[in-house]
């Protein structure tokens, strides 16, 4: 009797479990997935008054079943051509063996997410600061990856850069050969004068030149040794930071052959006699440790002494 009851109870429990399992399978929600489709246009770099400019449309559609954040990883086809400040890009890293940068960026400037089925299109802009040629050129190796905020690579598209000639042609392009070493120079440093800011600072005029088209993010100046009390305050015009003995050259990246003049504002030395001390300006390039192709023209000397007449 006890055996029979136990057998019946076991059978009932097994039947109940099967029923619950069957109902659960019928009502379970479908698994959420992340997926996207990507469309990438062609990059045609057009000649302008300041090198080449081109834009490539990138379209991403959320084909997943849930809202998701998307980001892109981009490898530029021409070293130094992508403005990394756009889309909140993280610090760039170089591709091993060349100067092409790889950047991780947001898909949209505000980092908004896409609902299922939603599409966003952004323009990826590129600038190559070299003199436009009478013949077309090309350079390859660019790609864009789209990543899900949930983690994982969703899509990857490759692209190349094509340079239109000044005559309008894209036929039979030659390989664009870019300089690999920066080549900055100081071409002039003038006499110090009193700055009209009313604080007694000194104004030193400087002219720098960029002789090549190697990739760079800008130039900067270092003054050494500055006498006690003398500190670089800012530049005129000024659009970058100045820190003690160093300042960026205003205006950002420079074209091949471009020359730029500006004034460096320096506080006077504590001891007026130190105004006769010899100071050296050295110009360097913001990039990734590349050595200047001709360091002999990177320095010039001056003093903070005012003209006597």
TrEMBL record:
<feature type="signal peptide">
    <location>
        <begin position="1"/>
        <end position="25"/>
    </location>
</feature>
<keyword id="KW-0732">Signal</keyword>
<protein>
    <recommendedName>
        <fullName>DUF916 domain-containing protein</fullName>
    </recommendedName>
</protein>
